[in-house]
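**Sequence with structure:**
===
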Amino acid sequence: MQTSGRTTEHADCDEIPGAGDGFRSTVRAMHVLSVNLGGPGHSDHTTQPERVTGIDKRPADGPVRVTAPGPKGAGGSALAGDSVCDLRNHGGNDQAVYAFAREDLDGWETELGRALPAGFFGENLTTAGLDVNAARIGERWRIGPELLLEVSAARTPCRTFAGRLGERGWVKRFTRAAAPGAYLRVVQPGFVGAGDPVVVEHRPRHEVSVSFLFRALTLEPELLPRVLAAGDALHPEDRATALRRTAVR
């Protein structure tokens, strides 16, 4: 798949000195295209005991409240009205919001020859003008006047996702593309709605982007020791994986 290639580090990115971490960047085109919610629905592909999943997400009619949902295993989605049904593997504070770029959906539409509307990949936020996969772990996004999110992890494709797409070899194809979209945690609660601007308020200076992390966790495990540069911003499970790899070197 041809990914969007857009990044907030291009020439159309303004860097304004004086923000708390040394700069504040904004790109006019960066915004939330759609906020997507899903209720429980039956799936033959999920390992959830009741065979229900919240992956079928549709655009919300208006602004949605976003708050930290609580620890994994107890908390689900950060978005009010959105369902996370398999709390063993999804949801919680470190996987509170899932974002995917419209540009990457467009790339998959071309490759698969089918329409992929906003929310089809199970994302809560469909973005435009933002290279989600180039975002670094620990990067912070201000969305609208209140909401502040922090990039925490990469999405790992699962059986439910593969079943929803119904494409042969989907998990392998998605993994090879290394453009998984980002999970985010809630730093400051607030509302999010379609059209809200996205401002990058903090970008760490390490190399661990969403795509880099995903590659390290899947096809390029030799990268795992370098993942630790993201420090405490890593999802605890990803940090533990990287530490195990470092310990056996």
